[in-house]
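=== RUN LOG ===
request id: a7f3
mode: sequence -> structure
chains: 1
length: 439
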Amino acid sequence: MSKNAIIRGTFILTATGLLTRFIGFFFRSFLSHTFGEEQVGLYQLIFPIFALCFSLSSAGIETALSRCVAQKMSLGKKKEANYILYQSLFISVSLSLILTLLVRRYSVVLSIYVLGDLRCAELLSTLVLTLPFSSIHNCICGYYLGQKKTKIPAISQLVEQLMRVGTVYMIYTIMQNNDSNISIWVAVLGLLIGEAVSSLYCIRYYCAHPHSKFSLPAMHQNRYLSRELLTLAVPLTATRILMNLLQSVESISIPLCLQKYGYTNSEALSTYGVLVGMALPCILFPTAVTNSVSTMLLPTVAEIQAEDDLPHLKKLVRRVIFFGFGLGAVCGVMFLLFGSLAGKILFGSILAGDFIQTLAWICPFMYMNTTLLGILNGLGKANLSFINNVCGLAIRISGVWFGIGMFGMNGYLWGLLISQLLVSLLCVSQLGLYIEKRE
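=== RESULT ===
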């Protein structure tokens, strides 16, 4: 991949990511002012289960599809690339439909015994309806990312966000004019409609081009392509599932541990809502840049590895470390100086401002980690990325179980800082050892 292609792809993904995050940022501010901190906490509480279902049905398949398509296109095998997309769609959509039925069937059980709040049942039942649409959307986007074409993934992301926000605001306006009660369920409905429209846009674009013509390969070739896809998808999916399980344990444990610390159920949900729904999105806003860089780094690093161009790799690693840490340092200073003001103005919450200022210290390490993990994945070291993330999550969960019990929410925030620092040290040392062995 040429340098210009990397810059162009990164620019498109970054511009779209920043725009959608900008929209989402003020959308979250709208939610916090309209529904209150406790309702936002309920809204955030259902996402760990959804993330787990998404990982099982789509996440690993999308990444595997991108890598397979990139390989087939580089060899001029467009028909095989198309058929791998069809296989991915069949597997992903089938899994998503099964998971949708199961979660809707047991939504009350999951809400009571896993999430700890019966009010989540209706929200969860609606949210899982987005899974089949997400599968279609992500597979088609993965197909185009494998070809280094960022236009469709970028536009579909923007379409999804605009439809989501527009739907919620329209329903809110109608119900407010009619003096009707409105709940946070409307925000979940907006997610569903946004994802549905986005997937339809992807289908329409794909079907409008000649490469959409279906061509069934020979039986032996069919088995080979299926094996090639699943060989990559299964371990990636297993990794994402385990990661999401650990993240789910972390998310669900925070309100429970806050209650043990002395918070009431309402106070715990409110605090959790402020952290996850207000402070963290503010801190994560600049990661639109690092996520885009990481997406474009994976195929670039794979090409460098195939060419055995060690000097290029060393130069790239140095630049990535400087870029990620530098961006994080600048953003961290800004959050320290203006975090309190941002919390008051954007969210009307003093607590959100306090969280933003505390979380500012993790920015240099968090932003750098995103790009370093992208390099490891590009080198085919997904196992190391997995180990690093598990170690980081173990520290974070320890911060929940032990830190909150002793220091309240600050105990968790300190654990979050230590976890990001640990992941940074692991990534840098592993890349250093890899380069040293190749020299």
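=== NOTES ===
Residues 286-439 form one domain.
The first helix runs from residue 3 to 45.
=== END ===
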